[in-house]
From TrEMBL:
<keyword id="KW-0812">Transmembrane</keyword>
<feature type="transmembrane region" description="Helical">
    <location>
        <begin position="40"/>
        <end position="64"/>
    </location>
</feature>
<keyword id="KW-1133">Transmembrane helix</keyword>
<keyword id="KW-1003">Cell membrane</keyword>
<dbReference type="Pfam" id="PF01810">
    <property type="entry name" value="LysE"/>
</dbReference>
<feature type="transmembrane region" description="Helical">
    <location>
        <begin position="148"/>
        <end position="172"/>
    </location>
</feature>
<dbReference type="GO" id="GO:0005886">
    <property type="term" value="C:plasma membrane"/>
</dbReference>
<feature type="transmembrane region" description="Helical">
    <location>
        <begin position="6"/>
        <end position="28"/>
    </location>
</feature>
<protein>
    <submittedName>
        <fullName>Threonine/homoserine/homoserine lactone efflux protein</fullName>
    </submittedName>
</protein>
<dbReference type="GO" id="GO:0015171">
    <property type="term" value="F:amino acid transmembrane transporter activity"/>
</dbReference>
<feature type="transmembrane region" description="Helical">
    <location>
        <begin position="70"/>
        <end position="91"/>
    </location>
</feature>
<keyword id="KW-0472">Membrane</keyword>
<feature type="transmembrane region" description="Helical">
    <location>
        <begin position="112"/>
        <end position="136"/>
    </location>
</feature>
<feature type="transmembrane region" description="Helical">
    <location>
        <begin position="184"/>
        <end position="204"/>
    </location>
</feature>
<dbReference type="InterPro" id="IPR001123">
    <property type="entry name" value="LeuE-type"/>
</dbReference>
């Protein structure tokens, strides 16, 4: 298995967790209101959803590859378009008002588990992110590589969780987030658009019969 493929899976898992989204924003709210322990419990429960959606995404990607490159290319194009759409939506975000109440969760572990397993954006974002970062190594994607890809992805999830847990709950983080929320959301939009461009760049030659060597 190529090093590029492993690095791509690791970065996809890392990005999937760190790029601001519903879970990221929920974690910031919990961490700001209840501290790092509650935030860690939330992320521990949410990890189940991360593993589930990334597994389904990788199975879909590998399955598409084994069936034929055309399906994989179309999948990449669709996912690239989806990433571009959510990125553009983030870029157009507008302030929602000040003095929002901090989130209070009685059972953060259960909340994280339910949130992770029912998040409607979990699968499409995982599929889009993994497709964007694995498209350049499409020829190496086989079902035999799935266990290693999942293991590397799990490491990425855990490292991302540790990073988030290490910074949440601090007053300086809370103040910074409240002061720069719009900028953070828009920067995340730029990252999504960057992933979209990468996905489309890698699949376009195959769709138009100009596959790069």
């Amino acid at each position: 298995m190529s090093e590029t493929l492993l690095v791509g899976a690791f970065l996809a898992a890392l990005s999937y967790t760190l790029i601001p989204g519903p879970a990221f924003l929920a974690l910031l709210g919990i961490g700001a209101g209840q501290g790092r322990k509650a935030g860690a419990l939330f992320m521990g429960g949410h990890l189940a959803g991360d593993i589930l959606w990334s597994t389904l995404a990788l199975v879909a990607i590998v399955g598409a590859r084994s069936i034929g490159t055309a399906i994989f290319d179309i999948l990449g194009l669709i996912c690239g378009a989806y990433l571009a759409w959510i990125g553009w939506t983030a870029l157009k975000a507008r302030p929602r008002g000040d003095n929002r109440a901090l989130m209070t969760v009685e059972r953060p572990l259960r909340r994280g588990l339910i949130f992770g397993l029912t998040n409607p954006k979990g699968y499409p974002v995982a599929l889009a992110t993994f497709t964007a970062l694995l498209a350049s190594s499409a020829n190496a994607l086989e079902f035999e590589a799935l266990p290693m890809l999942l293991a590397v992805s799990l490491i990425g999830f855990l490292i991302a969780d540790v990073i988030l847990i290490a910074i949440i709950g601090a007053s300086v983080v809370r103040r910074f987030y409240r002061r720069h929320e719009l900028t953070i959301v828009r920067l995340s939009g730029l990252l999504f658009i960057g992933f979209a461009a990468q996905a489309i760049w890698h699949v376009a030659p195959g769709l138009f019969g100009m596959r790069r060597a």
